[in-house]
Amino acid sequence: MKIRHLRILLALVPILSFCTKKDPGNNNNNNPPGKTDTTIAIKPQIDPALSPTIGFFMNDWQEKSFNIPSSFNQTTAPTNTGYTISIDRSNVLTKISRSIAGNNANGWMGDMISEPNLLNHITALNPHIIRFPGGSTSDIYFWNAPAYQPPADAPAKLVNADGTTTDAGYWYGTNNANWTISVDKYYQMLTQTGNQGLITINYGYARYGTTANPVATAAHLAADWVRYDNGRTKYWEIGNENFGDWEAGYRINTANNKDGQPEFLTGALYGQHFKVFADSMRKAAQEIGKTIYIGAVASEATPPSWGTPTLKGWNTGLFSAAGSTPDYYVVHNYYTNYKTNASAAEILATPQSVTGTMMDYVKQAMASASLPIKPVVLDEWNIFSTGSMQQVSHINGLHAVLILGEAIKNQFGLTARWDLVNAWEDGNDHGMFNAGDEPGGVPKWNPRPAFFHMYYFQKYLGDRLIASSSSSAELVSYASSFSSGQTAVTLVNKGNNAKSVEIKISNFKMGSRFYWYTLTGGGDNGEFSRKVIVNGIGPDFISGGPTDYTNIKPYAATTSNGIKISVPAHSSVFIVVDKG
User: Fold this and answer.
1) Torsion-angle region of residue 79: left (phi > 0), alpha (psi -120 to 50) or beta?
2) 334-339 contact pairs (CB < 8 A, 24+)
3) What is the pTM of this model?
4) What φ, ψ does residue 403 adopt, rounded to 5°?
5) Contact in structure between 316 and 302 (CB atoms under 8 Å)
6) Quick one: 260 exposed, middle or buried, by C-beta within 10 A (0-12, 13-18, 19+)?
7) Interval 341-374: pLDDT, tens
């Protein structure tokens, strides 16, 4: 009997230990070492219903595993903290779309495939989606035309918003000159870098074309591209910013038009034409046994009082005329006021105030038209600020992190930054890489600060966004979890002072160590440093970041005293806490 009782007691030991135990350091809810842990139940993660604003962009979602660094720089965490980040790992806000950090290619950035340095950077960045052929040139782009041989029905001159005419300046998809990238080379670039495409179709041709039925002609050209593509591209969109008076086809010469179109484009007319394009393109996809998704151009915000009649009536006309035909809706946003010399504080305030408002506006437009909510993508974004080299600065890198975090939080299906390469223009350059025209001995394809912020953001981003909150409005947090068990958090300090922060994670059994990268600016160019310093390692040139960024070791500290970290002024910090 005594032996039997002993066996029973021994069998109960694990159960008793589970109910009340002394945790030596790997504790739940960040309990100090040695404190009795009575919070036993760790709530499991439960994925919420998929948001319709993400929809099919989640079809290729994958679990992510975090690989524990084999080497790191062990660092002592701060003892005292004045700020708190609170994270609930069980509260899943959304799974994270793989298309959330895409980018834009364009026709003037060279053939790309002969540039190994550029391809290596793009491969490391892994944007997943690269849009093409690029912005407004899409509406004057003939994908299958030889160089300088436009279709016979494409007029030599196009009408500007003010009624004057200029040379059309068409672009050609089979132009194999090394200063541009052809359609075939675009496909090769995607294969070489492991990314997918998003193609913007020439809608403007449906307006300025001179055949008896220019809409059908333009739609047929689009359908032929779908056939040629043969399933390589899932996402397509009809036109670029067609509500804008800067876009080809906004205003046409009615004397050349043969199907009775009005001089100025409207949202309703675009919606009617969209149906024709979508019908032709879907039939082409069915013929080759492929599935494609086709997006319509929507306006992203309430039109200003000075907006054109086209802009003011765009969404109402679009949603009414196109009905449920679009698979998704496309918006663009450059966040800051056009060509104003904005301060860092003004720039960094825009992602949180604008991104959610933009999503709400488009959803309301769908609801007002009694249409189901469909996916929304932000496939051009950046800042318009000029005058202090804001666009090539470390501050724009912080802005990029905030945009991505807010886009995930507001459940966009896809984003694509504008753009990979542009032009220096005295530092008013949206390009992520130097095109070779940046002064001061900066090598061609040298990455700008935004590249490094987006690289490390994705490196330390899990596959689910989880709830987090900050005790300071200047300190923004985006927490995520890896399916392999770790918890991550991105911190952006928008303020001018460093902050010592404690991170508290509930419903998580943390391990013995956490890892992080800290990105700060340099001392050049006032608050708009053109440099980014990663864990104390700066660039080899007057701008950009460390050359060997893929091999920089993370900082690490033990969790024995909790998760505490210093966040410098105007910095981003990317943290992963190991699982217990």
Assistant:
1) alpha
2) 334/380, 334/381, 334/382, 334/383, 334/384, 334/418, 335/381, 335/382, 335/383, 335/384, 335/399, 335/403, 336/383, 336/384, 336/385, 337/384, 337/385, 338/384, 339/384, 339/385, 339/386, 339/387
3) 0.93
4) -60, -45
5) no
6) exposed
7) 999 999 999 999 999 999 999 999 999 999 999 9
